[in-house]
Structures are given as C-alpha cells and as structure tokens.
Write a structure and sequence with these properties.
Elements: H1 10-22, H2 27-41, H3 56-70
C-alpha cells in the first residue's frame, strides 16, 4: 500500500467531504474509486470541457472591444443578461 499527498483548497475539501458523507463514503474511498476507474478505463470517468469564454477567438474579440472603448470609438452599454439553457 502507498500514500498519496496533495494540496487542495479548504472549501473544496469541505464541500466534497460533506457530499461524500451523504453518500456513505469518505475521501480516501472516493479517490480510490476514481483511480480504479481511471486505471480500468484509461480515461477520466467524466466529461471535461474547456470554457468557451477563454477560446482564442473570444479573447481576441474581447481585446478588440476593450481597445475600442479605450480609444473612444465605442461606449459601454448596460443590458440584461441572457440565460441560456444547455
């Protein structure tokens, strides 16, 4: 048997421990389950997506807009947020 140590933010740990307790698990068991699944399936056992906000195209557009506000060719306007359901 081996021991693995890692650092994580206190609130992340507390939230995970609370959820795991509700499932009847502890952190060590949950991490072991995760690692067993990774080893068996040779993949992360859940979907991981990049946030499209940080795409190079969006960042270029945001930089263009900031530049136009700074040089006075555009002004900031208030608007309602649009909720999008996935």
């Amino acid at each position: 048997m081996t021991q693995v140590n890692f650092r994580i933010e206190d609130d992340i740990k507390a939230n995970a421990e609370s959820a795991l307790k509700e499932m009847g698990l502890n952190m060590s068991t949950a991490i072991t389950m995760f690692l067993v699944k990774v080893g068996r399936e040779r993949r992360i056992p859940f979907e991981i997506n990049a946030d499209p906000f940080y795409s190079s195209e969006n960042m270029a557009e945001l930089e263009r807009r900031v530049k136009s506000v700074k040089n006075g060719t555009s002004v900031l306007k208030e608007h309602e947020l649009i909720e999008v359901d996935d």
